Every structure is written in C-alpha cells, then in structure tokens.
Amino acid sequence: MSLHLFEKLTYSEDDWYIMQDAHLKACELLGEDPVSYENADRLARIIMNLFDGGARDFQIIASIAAHREAVLDRQWATYH
Question: Considering the chain, what is the average pLDDT of its residues?
Fold first, then answer.
C-alpha cells in the first residue's frame, strides 16, 4: 500500500472530533441517546461517508445524516 493511499484512509484527531460532534448532534436531532441508539453504527457510517465526500461542517453533516437515518428507519418500518 502506498503512503498516499494510507494517508487517505486515516483521519486526523481534528477529523475525529468533527465526526464525533456530528454524531452527537445527529442523535440529538433524531431524539436518540448516542450511547444506546440501536443504529448508532449505521449513523456513524453515514457520517463518515459524508466526511469522506468532503463535508467538514459538523452541523451540516449532522443534519444530512439525521435526515438519511430517518428515511432509512421509515423504509425499514415499511418493509418489515
């Protein structure tokens, strides 16, 4: 693996803080406890994908992630 690829696959401490803040805010928007939310991992993956796509404002990331999570929850409830 080249160093350049490795650097693309790692996050700085500041990156983690942005994603953590986004996760906490998204849980707040969803009315869920970030510690016990059953889909916390799925929400985290959504946040990481948004971050990997270039988003850096934790509030924007949180809003988009919460919306996507709400849509996924509705779809899951509809089909199951």
Answer: 91
Per DSSP, the residues of 15-47 read HHHHHHHHHHHHHHHHT--TTT-TTHHHHHHHH
Distance CA 69, CA 1 (A): 33
- Sequence spans of domains, the chain: 12-79
User: Are the C-beta atoms of residues 40 and 4 closer than 8 Å to each other?
Assistant: no
Q: What is the rounded CA–CA span in Å between residue 44 and residue 47?
A: 5
Q: Determine the residue type at 26.
A: A
Q: What is the DSSP letter of 76?
A: H
Give this prediction's pTM.
0.84
